[in-house]
Amino acid sequence: MDPMHDISILAIIWVSVFVASFLAFRTRLTPVLWYLFCGATMVNIGLLPKVMPVFITDFAELGIIIIMFALGFEEDTDNFLASIKRSWGIAFFGALAPFLVAYFAAIYFWQDTNAALLCGLAMTATAVSLTMVSLKTEGLSKSSAATGIMTSAVLDDIASLALVAIMVPIATGEASVSLDGILLVVGKAVSFFLVVTFIGAWLFPKSDGFARNIPFVGSFNLRRILAMAEGQYTVLALLLIAVLVGILAHEFGFHPAVGAYMAGLIIQREYFAFHEHRNVDFHQQAQEIVDNVAFTWIGPVFFVTLGTHLVFDGDIFMTVLPYALILFVGLFVGQVLSASLAARYTGNFDWPASLMIGFGMLGRAELAFVVLDIAFVQHHIISTEAFYTLMMTTFFLNISVPLTIRWWKSRFGHTIPAS
């Protein structure tokens, strides 16, 4: 195929990123929704092909790897660990309820256990970025509710990533549903996370870490690579780590995005304490560049490409609309009630903050679309009807986040304490 044809498609996608970003700014909705909308619109009017060239699909795959790395990289591991005690209940019950709602709804709609597992998984993890942007817009980003949402959402994401690692091989038939098969997948998942943890302790050792005392191994770490050439290769080193750990995850049978997220999570701010004479915050500089790559020019290609799978069919749309509305109502009620009650009775938040946490946990974004990509595009585990249903449900849930937060703030915002 003519390489200029592939580059022309990429140029069209990048133009749509500008359009989607403008629409997101005007509507105060997450850009991810508009990326999907633009992809769906362009494929239905013939501006983009229904089957993307390999160059674009590979570029999109790189995009989701970098997005998941960026999400892990921006988390403060210490703050996260300190907040677990208060937020574990919100994360557990706030994830269990939507999983069960989506799972049993999918069973009822399509009578397919494997599809139901992945439908439940797709609806489990909360979209942190969407909620935090909405809270920041309303001046609540430093509130106790925001802290509870952030920690709970990160716990949800980590648990969901672990479930992706365990459930996808079972749902795709790569692992049997027998006890031995499940134990094998769980063992591989545990082994992978242990390997990543060891790599993090070895290549990025703390001053009091165990790896520093291991002969030969303890003398080698990647801080020197990050600090090369006055820090000019820091971002390249980070992206290389994301890709390599993604490849490692793939070798274990998991999605590369799982490895990329874990790679981001184990890299901490203290690893960037070098070249202090330059008076540069290399961690902040690297995070800004990685975020720019992930959320501005490579990552969006993944979502626009995913949107191109929404080839409009009036019959399918009218068929799945009732399913999407039923699933949306079930998830809305289940998510808000479970997260709010958990915040009140396991996290000791007051009722205004608890309800705000419930509303803030409604969003679904990056991880949901990773699961949908695996389930529909890569392995065809879920049907076209299920894919459309989940995409429409996700759209409804994400619209609900800024609307409910704004409404709840207008009623009780003055009583939600700062953290």
Question: Can you walk through the features of this model?
Answer:
- The mean pLDDT is 82.
- With 419 residues, the protein is mainly alpha-helical.
- The longest helix is centred in the N-terminal third of the chain and has 34 residues, at 77-110.
- The chain is 74% helix and 0% strand.
- Helix 4 (77-110) crosses helix 15 (314-345), helix 7 crosses helix 8 and helix 8 runs parallel beside helix 12 (256-266).
- It has a domain at 77-101 and 144-307.
Produce the secondary structure layout.
Layout: H1 3-27, H2 31-44, H3 54-73, H4 77-110, H5 113-122, H6 128-137, H7 144-171, H8 179-203, H9 223-226, H10 228-231, H11 234-251, H12 256-266, H13 282-297, H14 299-307, H15 314-345, H16 351-360, H17 366-378, H18 384-412
Helix pairs in contact: 1-2, 1-14, 2-14, 3-11, 3-12, 3-13, 3-14, 4-5, 4-7, 4-15, 5-7, 5-17, 6-7, 6-18, 7-8, 7-16, 7-17, 8-12, 11-12, 11-13, 15-16, 15-18, 16-18
Radius of gyration: 21 Å
- What distance separates the N and C termini? 56 Å
Give the helices and strands as they follow along the chain: HHHHHHHHHHHHHHHHHH
List the uncertain runs.
Answer: none
